[in-house]
Amino acid sequence: MPAASPRITGFETHDVRFPTSGQLDGSDAMNPDPDYSAAYLILRTDADGDAPEGAGGAAEGHGFVFTIGRGNDVQVAAIEALRHHVLGLPVDDLCADPGKLARTLADDSQLRWLGPEKGVMHMAVGAVLNAVWDLAAKRARKPLWKLLADASPEWLVSQVDFRYLTDALTPDEALALLRRGRRDRERREAALLERGYPAYTTSPGWLGYSDEKLARLAREAVAEGFTQIKLKVGADPADDVRRCRTARAAIGDGVRLAVDANQRWDVAEAVARTRVLAEFDPYWIEEPTSPDDVLGHAAIRAAVAPVRVATGEHAHNRVVVKQLLRAGAIDVLQIDATRVGGVNENLAILLLAARFGVPVCPHAGGVGLCELVQHLAMFDYVALSGTTEDRAIEYVDHLHEHFLDPVVIRRGHYAAPTAPGFSAAMRRESIARHTFPHGEYWAARRAADEEAPA
Amino acid sequence: MPAASPRITGFETHDVRFPTSGQLDGSDAMNPDPDYSAAYLILRTDADGDAPEGAGGAAEGHGFVFTIGRGNDVQVAAIEALRHHVLGLPVDDLCADPGKLARTLADDSQLRWLGPEKGVMHMAVGAVLNAVWDLAAKRARKPLWKLLADASPEWLVSQVDFRYLTDALTPDEALALLRRGRRDRERREAALLERGYPAYTTSPGWLGYSDEKLARLAREAVAEGFTQIKLKVGADPADDVRRCRTARAAIGDGVRLAVDANQRWDVAEAVARTRVLAEFDPYWIEEPTSPDDVLGHAAIRAAVAPVRVATGEHAHNRVVVKQLLRAGAIDVLQIDATRVGGVNENLAILLLAARFGVPVCPHAGGVGLCELVQHLAMFDYVALSGTTEDRAIEYVDHLHEHFLDPVVIRRGHYAAPTAPGFSAAMRRESIARHTFPHGEYWAARRAADEEAPA
């Protein structure tokens, strides 16, 4: 008689917040004072190897939604609303077919009303699925990128929800893309393990930094091997020009300079403001307007060429991405690991990008986004698009010390993770210390605030 | 010395759920078992006339988000996350300029990440603003539609957030539309008070009803004076044909028959399934595919004409509506009172519809949606579009008994509300009895479930 499968026995959520607003790290035109946060989920199982005090064991799956502070409690509540769909599931079946749970969660007819497939409720679905993928990769003893790259095209297609996609991508077309993508994958896997995946860095370019700090960090980035940096723009026009000039002078002509407006502009303003910056040869203009405005992005792209248009980190689901691609609205697609419905929906999005031949340059930074999204880009390189040309993963040097398997950057490249899992596990002591509002850090800060003179 | 303004002194939320799933009322192809619910907010003030036991006094503002059951607690948590923006505000200033609070809520840089402007967090903003508008109308001693219709075009324009709209609608264009809309408004106001606003009914057409019940209710609707009914479709194709035939036979050729697929189809399937139903002369096909798929709706519309395409109840903000209109994707726009950012964003949406000359037929039903949305349609008639031609507000005969100022239907028309406010106030005893999970109804049901044999 075969042993019964272990089951999901615990569904544990945490409201974790880091006080980044104090340093103006992460400041941009739309988000002046973020406190990088995670609505964090741990799935526990009764499999051998479960160690309640450990965070990386094969018997746990970790996932989260990245937020920027207030409302992280709402995001935790949304994850909690999915508890009943997950507790008690047999782990073997769950890890063999995360897509089945993805459909169950998408089809909860009552919860669906709160989206559908967008916002807080949809990101909660993503956190649960990402935790399942972390568990599946750990049990397979592979980093997630390798689990995906080794999987059969047929199985990968079974993990995708093609609803609302078939006018742009059918299951058969996806299968053909994946079959083509597998050819010579051993060679690319070896290259990935040797060189890593290209990165670009946003660390020099936060809006709250002085010109001196910007120039110094930009020079350091080039010295460290980065071939692209990114600058936040979109507040004062004169500042944009001065900062772009400062950055371009610091990095020289051979390094790409991307600029990011974080949704600050209407369409006409986006066109005018981007044209003013054209003298500094920006590689792309990112989020020039509302992330919902597919037609607006298409109009901007037509007007600002040859400057590329990049967006996608706030594209709330595969239907928006489908339209961005169909409308010819973007040159660069920026996927995000925790905005959509987990690995399953990001597979759909990577397939759409491959179908339309648009390069994917993932959004990262925040807390834990680099750790997660590198796996998706590396899978794409090894077994789908087959190239890193004009592709790079965003890198920000924030908060990695809180993760058990933090990203490693070498000469401007992400080193391929080799530890099993999705690199999602945050250190237990970091979770405890930064739990809001009662963790040690926040309790001490509140006490200090109360003692301070008014 | 002038008396100080009263202030917002209370921010009280309730998780209210009605057990509608037991009757298959409200069942459709995507939502088979809804429990109509409200994430409910009461703003209290210290103005004279505040009566904690009453629900309709001039000193309280009521608002809510309609949901269909599970997750109503998440929606309540999202409303609670806005508490700190509202408590303590001076009521006079707040009611003189709800748009100022609208901008404060939209600009909360940390909460914004959870949308932006979509899903649970955005609907929470809508509930807060709608409660403020209820309070403002009560203090003005006018029903909301009349408050809006009497307001100056300049003030109405000041209530709209034009961000992301100016490529389709500028403040000056909005002002011109409102000035044109005011001409002869006394005549239309008199007509509205005499005849009411046209309604159509969805009560006969729920997917879970038998053919006999469908035919009987359809005949009754025509006898009651409705000139349009709506049928849910989108599950089994043969059922759709049979039900359309049944309905058409029951109502005859002179009554409009709309069909509603509730997002069930991909683009090609929507075209094929709608064409099959064309023999029954459907007036519109509603929500044929994903509410996010602007380009998909445009493709469907081009393929199924002369059948009209209607959508909008799940359009999550003004940017989506702008695109639906710009892309020529719809013939009929279906606004919803609690999906977007309150009256302020619905003003933007009504202005967009007027700009593009597309008729607005509001979505209603659920719990309280009829009560709210009638005010928006009536304002549009009296002081913006100036017509009810090809326009009707959805009507469903559910749960009105729980409201202090329920809608009144006469000869297929909504009678214009005359009581001050937004008709949002639910009876205190209804809230208490249906509070989930500890109100009297749910406690009794749980006790009964526990006693029932397994």
UniProtKB/TrEMBL annotation, chains A, B:
InterPro entries tied to this protein: Enolase-like_C_sf, Enolase-like_N, Enolase_C-like, L-fuconate_dehydratase, Mandel_Rmase/mucon_lact_enz_CS, Mandelate_racemase_C, RHMD-like
Pfam families attached to this UniProt entry: MR_MLE_C (PF13378)
Location of the Mandelate racemase/muconate lactonizing enzyme C-terminal domain: 211-307
Cofactor(s) listed in the protein's UniProt record: Mg(2+)
Top-level taxon of origin: Bacteria
Region (Disordered): 1-31
Keywords in alphabetical order: Lyase, Magnesium, Metal-binding
Name of the protein: L-fuconate dehydratase
Classification of source organism: Bacteria, Bacillati, Actinomycetota, Actinomycetes, Kitasatosporales
